[in-house]
Amino acid sequence: MATRRRDRDPQGETTGSGASARKGRSDRGAKGERSGKPAKGERGAGASASRSGQGDPAAVGPARSGRVVAHHGVAVLVRFDDDGSEGQVWLAPEQRAVVGDRVLVSGIRLETLPARGVLRRMDPRGRERTIAVNLDRLFIVVAAEPREQPGYIDRGIVIARSAGIEPAIIVNKLDLPGGEALAARLREIYGGSCEVFAVSAAERIGLDAIRADLAGGRMGAMVGPSGVGKSSLLNALVPALALRVSELNRGSGHGRHTTTTATLHDLEGGGFLVDTAGFKDFIAVDVSPAEVAACFPGFEAALEPGCRFRNCLHKSEPDCAVLAAFERGELDERRLAAYSALLDELATSASRAGDAPSRKSSR
Ligand SMILES: Nc1nc2c(ncn2[C@@H]2O[C@H](COP(=O)(O)OP(=O)(O)OP(=O)(O)O)[C@@H](O)[C@H]2O)c(=O)[nH]1
Ligand SMILES: [Mg+2]
Ligand SMILES: [Zn+2]
User: Fold this and answer.
1) Residues with Cβ within 6 A of ligand 1?
2) 345 pLDDT band (50/70/90 cuts)?
3) In what order do the strands lie in the sheet with 128-132?
4) What pLDDT was estimated at residue 171?
5) Fewer CB near the last or first residue (10 Å), C or N of the chain?
6) For the domain with range 58-115, which CATH number is right: 2.40.50.140, 3.10.20.90, 3.30.365.10, 2.170.270.10?
7) 36 and 46 in contact (C-beta within 8 Å)?
8) How much distance in Å is there from the Cα of 130 to the middle of ligand 1?
């Protein structure tokens, strides 16, 4: 398959072009309803490019099941279910696997099992990147310093919901001046949409709530701009861990992209949490306008009675529940403006990606 390629990048996210069988289509509801095809946020077995076939000489001995806990470009680190040991397994040339993937390993052969809760983003070059899979929870981490780009949280919530992942916000660095105020403001805006955790990795505040949230085997991932303290939070949550963290750049006040690869960690209480490399822009992949209209944070109450049209974009349609709530003064104008901005932005990034040579990656 000459057109198929894959780039391996140091962030442990994988891009490439080729089969995109699991792509959700606009005929599917925003909440990841099932149809014959794999829904968005899922990945069918067909998309895993394992070296398959009966009698594969590489497949020796019984298969061991495990989970990908780190991605090192040409190989993945697998933690095995049977004894908790970890081992590096090389990827075949066309093979894709990311943190969170369930895998079967026999000999040197790795098979990737179908996944759900697939978190993807578009990188600044218009390429799709899969950050992690099998996620139940997406924590969007922000802090009083450095602040995230406008719309970052909105995009994160829409991306998570459209992939069938439950979003939440973590406000870290509660100890900094402005930390409490930021948490209060985000609770006001987003409290009706998702949980807002206020924590301090430095002062070990609010960590139990995060452990409790993932207890019983739920899997979460943290995303957020570089420098908000994602790795610091994991270090605080897992005492034996010593992930690299670093000071903000004095000049710019921005993070330094300290974490370069996603890693998965076990939490006390049975949950799993993925640390990721920070990124400035959280741009959606293949999220339709109808999904944004259904998933946008702040519209939940307004949408209860429902709009007249199922695919209403809340622009100027008749009997629109969102516009009616706005008219009644029940919806903040800034929410509506942020929504319009996101719709416009997605239209722009979709057309930009359409020009890029490698738009359709599956991992
Ligand atoms: N005051 C304060 N500083 C914190 C807190 N958590 C993290 N920091 C500091 O913030 C800086 C960045 O922390 P990191 O954990 O490296 O940030 P990150 O989000 O993992 O950054 P990337 O890996 O680049 O995405 C470090 O200097 C940390 O010491 C906190 O709760 N309070
Ligand atoms: Mg980090
Ligand atoms: Zn509407």
Assistant:
1) 172-173, 175-176, 200-202, 224, 226-232, 245-248, 255-259, 277-278
2) confident
3) 5-8, 14-17, 128-132, 119-122
4) 98
5) N
6) 2.40.50.140
7) no
8) 24
